[in-house]
Amino acid sequence: MKRLVVIAALFVAYASAYAQQATQAPAPIVEATAPMVYKVNTRLVNLFVNASDATGAPIGSLSKEDFQIIEDKKPQTIAVFEKQSETPLSVVMAIDTSGSMMKDARLVREAAKQFVKDVVRPQDEMEVLQFATSVSEIVPFTSDAKRIDDGLSELTEGETTHLYDAIYLAGQNLSERRLGVSPNGVRKRIIVIISDGDDSGKGSNYEQAAEQALRGEAMVYSIIVVPIAADAGRNTGGEHALIQMAADTGGKYYYTESPKDLKTAFAHISDDLRTQYLLAYYAPEHRPGTSFHAITVQLTDPAKRDADVLRYRSGYYGH
Q: What is the model's pTM?
């Protein structure tokens, strides 16, 4: 009997407690707070730098400590330093096939084919464009030297010269070639222009072409063919534009008075590409509205700074 009384008492106590709990307001539901997201700017800005002495001879003995990088007048920390010779190449060769150039088409083809043999390795790739009345791709990006060789045999003559359209398209195509097979995933992007410097098209202008080359992080190498140096009809304005574009992108320009000299110019480009330093730094955060960011690379030793010459691209465009 006592046992039954105890059980009944426990039941009454439990029922009372349950009823009291039911009349209270439900406990608030605590929602999980969304995790905080931190955005970190990790864009690595790659710079290929050529160093030469007063005579023009390459300097290959510099170290990381010999360089300083300044972006928008603010010093930056060098995160990557390499003496480059094996970085994969993405090259766009753009050939002027207007009438003034194609009268020596055989020599142009021979020189271009030799350049392909000297430059393109299994880890490299090349695209070939021809430009005259329009710009067309005759060989898509490939590392197959024979395919490039065959494409160069298909150059066709046109009337006008869409030089800036060719550079714009080359820069646009190179902007998509982001990764390479090197340990750091870097590709060296190159535009090689073979032209007499004339632009008679009505498409892109110089400013648009130059900006697209920089957006593609491309170095422009201009081979300017001048059949008659003293020709009154010579387009010196076009020549100067190619020279300036080469300077702004860290490339170089070469004059040839005849297509016979093209092989020598191509050989100089090949040598130049194999004697570059790779310097890279992490871009700082930029305020909205800032688009172009100017870069200065200089040597830390003031004496060397005055005597030696550095070539590199002048900056980059933000997104």
A: 0.82
